[in-house]
Automatic annotation (TrEMBL):
<dbReference type="GO" id="GO:0042813">
    <property type="term" value="F:Wnt receptor activity"/>
</dbReference>
<dbReference type="InterPro" id="IPR050778">
    <property type="entry name" value="Cueball_EGF_LRP_Nidogen"/>
</dbReference>
<dbReference type="InterPro" id="IPR000033">
    <property type="entry name" value="LDLR_classB_rpt"/>
</dbReference>
<protein>
    <submittedName>
        <fullName>Uncharacterized protein</fullName>
    </submittedName>
</protein>
<dbReference type="GO" id="GO:0005886">
    <property type="term" value="C:plasma membrane"/>
</dbReference>
<dbReference type="GO" id="GO:0060070">
    <property type="term" value="P:canonical Wnt signaling pathway"/>
</dbReference>
<dbReference type="InterPro" id="IPR011042">
    <property type="entry name" value="6-blade_b-propeller_TolB-like"/>
</dbReference>
<dbReference type="GO" id="GO:0017147">
    <property type="term" value="F:Wnt-protein binding"/>
</dbReference>
């Protein structure tokens, strides 16, 4: 936990997105940034990124409004983890929402509408009423992931058996690959691997820089994927067994992290350092994997929850990106 004595400020002018900087600097009690870690991030990412960011981080000890954002019955809802207030952000979406992702740089939540054949976004947080913006047309999209370094959105179209990509504003839409029926998706920013699951019970990865394709895991029915970039671990939700599982990024050293004790109801997961947030039927679980593994219910609702996103309060971060306009 960040203490009252924490008042150091870190300035880093680099080509690293906020998501990557935060995920690579987390620890079990919050996160701290060390010079050698930041230098390592900058070294790894500079070859991939053309955007210029000015990131001003000021770690504060009080007032962080960390929240869980999730989808249920065609609505997107938030729960404030500080005061437990639950609020509806967007309603009447006329579709199941199976995936959510957030870009801290532009301040947008992105999501697919499976039943309405499109990708939408809305600005978050907002002092005015939340309203969605159209991003791109899609054929029954299931899951998406954003690339905050290059301002890209990737999504799976299960019955078209394709992964598509477009820019944050919907331009430059292209087909990335075709495979079996596709479901979950996540992105390894460091090594430029796009991970996805198929309904033939496989996890595969696709190298964006070369087009190389590899099978990482077999005999797993996966509905949620995520990566801990700092620990180089891949996490997934096994739908049939209801188990949260993990491996090295190449699929080796697999372990069962925890059993949710529910089967065929778990869909979305969101990895935030050593914490994994899981939709678990009508509940949201927070699974902490370090230093010891433990699971706790942090929200219970009246209907099934399809996707979940952890929002970290970045009110102390000032970001300038001269190469992106919304």
């Amino acid at each position: 936990m960040v203490t009252d004595s924490t008042d150091n400020k870190l300035r880093s002018h680099s080509s690293v997105s906020v998501q990557v900087l935060v995920s690579m600097c987390r620890d079990m009690d919050g996160f701290t940034c060390k010079g050698d870690i930041v230098d390592n991030i900058v070294m790894k990412y500079s070859v991939f990124v053309s955007i210029e960011l000015l990131i001003f981080l000021c770690f504060i000890s009080r007032g962080l409004q960390n929240k869980i954002i999730f989808s249920i019955n065609g609505s997107i809802i938030e729960r404030d983890l500080l005061n437990d207030v639950v609020s509806t952000l967007v309603s009447n979406l006329q579709s199941n929402i199976y995936s959510l992702d957030y870009d801290y740089k532009t301040g947008y939540v992105f999501f697919p509408r499976h039943n309405k054949n499109d990708i939408l976004r809305f600005r978050y947080p907002s002092e005015t009423a939340y309203s969605t913006k159209f991003v791109a047309a899609a054929r029954e999209p299931i899951a998406l992931v954003i690339d905050p370094l290059l301002n890209h959105v990737y999504w799976t179209e299960i019955y078209q058996q394709k992964i598509y990509r477009c820019d944050f504003d919907g331009t430059n839409k292209i087909s990335i690959l075709q495979d079996d029926q596709l479901y979950a998706i996540t992105l390894d920013y460091v090594n430029s691997w796009l991970y996805y699951s198929t309904k033939t019970n496989k996890i595969r990865r696709y190298r964006l820089t070369s087009g190389e394709k590899q099978t990482v895991k077999e005999s797993v029915d996966v509905t949620g994927l995520g990566i801990d970039a700092y620990k180089n671990r891949l996490y997934w939700m096994e739908y049939q067994r209801g188990d949260l599982e993990s491996s090295e990024l190449n699929g080796t050293n697999s372990i069962k992290v925890v059993s949710t004790n529910k089967t065929r109801t778990n869909i979305g997961i969101y990895v935030y350092g050593s914490k994994i947030y899981c939709s678990n039927g009508n509940q949201i679980l927070k699974v902490t994997v370090s230093p010891i593994t433990m699971a706790e219910v942090i929200h219970t609702d009246t209907a099934g929850i399809n996707s979940v996103l952890f929002y970290y309060d970045m009110s102390a971060v000032e970001i300038v990106d001269h190469n992106y306009t919304s």
